[in-house]
Write a structure and sequence with these properties.
single chain, 324 residues, 14 strands, L-2-Hydroxyisocaproate Dehydrogenase, Chain A, domain 2, globular, Rossmann fold, six-stranded parallel β-sheet
Length: 324
């Protein structure tokens, strides 16, 4: 049997992680022959919630689950971790401005970046899920100088999956036949879901859809505002199962590789391509192979789409300014 992989998860008593942990333990993320150790972190006030989750994980009798560690100590949670899923973040409260949210989460991700730098494995893969995910990833990276920036990513996969589903429903095709969708930019309402290069069973998606009004009036705003719509529909509860599923999809592709002739959307450190200056986390189309991602470069961008991409970039710059 393979040696176990240590997976650190923050915010581990929350809704997303409750949907996530059982799937990881079952083998859905890393394969059905890969043992895992779960190193679960949450704040001191939430430690009592761990008891029921651990009882249920044990009662599932997962053959791959070798150990469960619960803690309010980041050094223990991140110690020798191979993968870190940074799910926990302070949610935006009533009367809280975006700058207040950024400041509150800034201190959280400063601490986490420093501890990852100190005790995690140097080849660790880190996925930031807690919002604002792109900027939180940037904060964590800035506080982990000994780790490769390519070890970090932020999650755009939920937005990517939402776009796949909307297109599949529109053209009445299986989701598996929809390829090459891109979600550019920030994980926020400024993100740009782009169908310019998308394919449905090797045909151009735009030709099959043939409905510009649907794209502008329905598709783009639906993806941009889907999170808020789900909170309203779930009476105050945010996306949980779909976010957990996106985490699994993101890590599967990053570790095992993307499908042939396809790409996925990931928040990764910018390199200067597409006129997005280097040094911040931005949603790009990527391919993955041998545990590494590569930005898909050289795609043709029309002026209207370029403007949308720049708008999301400017929002990220504003967020960085607030943090600094």
């Amino acid at each position: 049997m393979k040696p176990p992989i240590r997976i650190a998860v923050t915010g581990a008593t929350g809704q997303i992680t409750y949907s996530l942990l059982f799937r990881i333990a079952a083998g859905d993320m890393l394969g059905y022959d890969q043992p895992v150790i779960l190193q679960l972190y949450d704040i001191t006030e939430a430690q009592h919630v761990f008891k029921g989750t651990v009882m249920e994980l044990n009662d599932c009798a997962f053959p791959l689950l070798k150990q469960i560690i619960t803690t309010d100590n980041l050094e223990i949670a991140f110690g020798d971790a191979d993968i870190a899923l940074l799910v926990g973040a302070r949610p935006r409260g009533e009367n809280m401005e975006r700058k207040d949210l950024l400041a509150a989460n800034g201190s959280i991700f400063i601490q986490q970046g420093k501890m990852l730098n100190a005790v995690a494995k140097k080849n660790i893969k880190i996925l930031v899920v807690g919002n604002p995910a792109n900027t939180n990833a940037w904060i964590a990276l800035k506080n982990a100088p000994d780790l490769d920036p390519r070890n970090f990513s932020s999650m755009l996969r939920l937005d990517h999956n939402r776009a796949l589903s909307q297109v599949a429903q529109k053209v009445n095709a299986p989701v598996s036949e929809v390829k090459r969708i891109i979600v550019w930019g920030n994980h926020s309402s400024t993100q740009f879901p782009d169908l310019s290069h998308a394919l449905v069973k090797d045909q151009k998606a735009l030709s099959l859809i043939n409905d510009p009004n649907w794209i502008e009036g329905s598709f783009i705003p639906t993806i941009q505002d889907r999170g808020a719509a789900i909170i309203k529909a779930r009476q105050g509860k945010s996306s949980a199962a779909s976010a957990a599923n996106a985490i699994i999809n993101h890590m599967q592709d990053w570790i095992f590789g993307t499908k042939e002739n396809d790409w996925v959307s990931m928040g990764v450190i910018s390199t200067g391509c597409y006129d997005i200056p280097s040094g911040l986390f931005y949603g790009f189309p990527v391919t993955c192979s041998n545990g590494q991602y590569k930005i898909v470069e050289g795609l043709e961008i029309n002026p209207s789409n370029y403007k949308r991409m720049q708008k999301s970039y400017q929002e990220l710059i504003t967020e960085q300014g607030m943090i600094q």
